[in-house]
Automatic annotation (TrEMBL):
Keywords: Cell membrane, Membrane, Transmembrane, Transmembrane helix, Transport
Membrane-spanning segments: 86-108, 120-141, 161-180, 265-290
Domain of life: Bacteria
InterPro entries, per database record: BPD_transp_1_N, MetI-like, MetI-like_sf
Membrane topology recorded in Swiss-Prot or TrEMBL: Multi-pass membrane protein
Family: Belongs to the binding-protein-dependent transport system permease family.
Annotated localization: Cell membrane
UniProt protein name: ABC transporter permease
Species for this entry: Gordonia jacobaea
Start and end residues of each ABC transmembrane type-1 domain: 84-287
Length: 297
């Protein structure tokens, strides 16, 4: 975790630092500024120091929860406090959709391999994977928001659960399709395993064989996928948040990249890296609960 944390933050900071743009010019809005003002701003945001000095100053502040100041004059930590709760709620909705829906449909498809509804589920999930997320978002926005009036078209400042349902479904749609296909493949393979035949030969009822033996072992790769998908969903919500006008992490990072605000971009990515690492630790610990062959001392 320590190596990944420092390596990821260093690479992100380096890439933002090497972007061929002048953040001071962007801060001025294209208007000419005096050399004295430019020098003052560069000193204020530590842009007059070497790259490695800027990075170590930033890391030192992170350990004190000081993520620097954005070019708008706001502390980055305050910006994060507004953006992260929105994206966390959106991500939780997407996780519920992809986890519950994906596992249920995957089990149904795997237990009925080769039947017409198994084929139908595979076709539908393949279509969802093939459609770009921005196309899926606009289609859902038009059908469910504009035409049928089931959900609000945009979110804006309305950040309650009801307004986040539709973008949450859109955000979790592709992962839902992957989980369906992954669960279906694992369930179909485990149904023919020796331990399943042994459990059936011992007289165990089919529901117990499926829930205790088949499903428990089939969920190991699914849990791995879900654990790694948390960070992907939070960091990859740029398109979804843009379509539905959601002031979350994705939109904030996008605007910060355009303005060349290295402290804002790196701070948000740093938190996303920490979330990703924690989720991977949780996944590793869940292996022991799902697989009886794994035990941690």
């Amino acid at each position: 975790m320590v190596i990944v944390f420092f390596g990821a933050t260093f690479l992100i900071y380096a890439m933002v630092f090497l972007v061929p743009s002048d953040p001071i010019a962007a801060l001025g809005g294209g208007k000419p500024m005096s050399p004295a003002l430019i020098a003052q701003l560069r000193a204020q945001y530590h842009l007059d120091q070497p790259f490695y000095v800027q990075y170590f100053n930033y890391i030192g502040g992170v350990f004190h929860l000081d993520f620097g100041t954005s070019f708008s004059g706001q502390p980055v930590f305050d910006v994060m406090k507004r953006a992260f709760p929105v994206t966390v709620n959106l991500t939780l909705i997407a996780l519920v959709v992809e986890t519950i829906g994906g596992v249920v449909f995957g089990v149904i498809s795997g237990l009925n391999k080769g039947r017409w509804y198994d084929t139908a589920i595979l076709i539908v999930t393949l279509i969802i994977i093939a459609i770009p997320i921005f196309v899926l978002g606009f289609v859902a926005q038009y059908l469910l928001g504009v035409k049928w009036h089931l959900f609000p078209v945009t979110v804006g400042g309305n950040l309650d659960f009801y307004h986040l349902i539709l973008p949450g479904f859109v955000l979790g749609a592709v992962s839902f399709a992957y989980i369906v296909r992954l669960t279906r493949s694992e369930v179909a393979d485990n149904l023919t395993a020796d331990y399943v035949r042994t459990a059936s030969a011992k007289g165990l009822r089919r529901p117990r064989v499926i829930t205790v033996h088949v499903l428990r072992n089939s969920l190991i790769p699914v849990v791995t996928f879900i654990g790694t998908d948390v960070g992907v969903l939070m960091g990859g919500a740029v398109v979804t948040e843009g379509i539905f006008n959601i002031p979350g992490v994705g939109g904030t990072i996008y605007q910060a990249v355009i303005r060349g605000e290295a402290p804002t971009v790196v701070s948000f990515v740093t938190v996303l890296v920490l979330i990703y690492l924690v989720c991977n630790i949780v996944v590793d610990l869940l292996y022991a609960a799902l697989d009886p062959r794994i035990r941690y001392a």
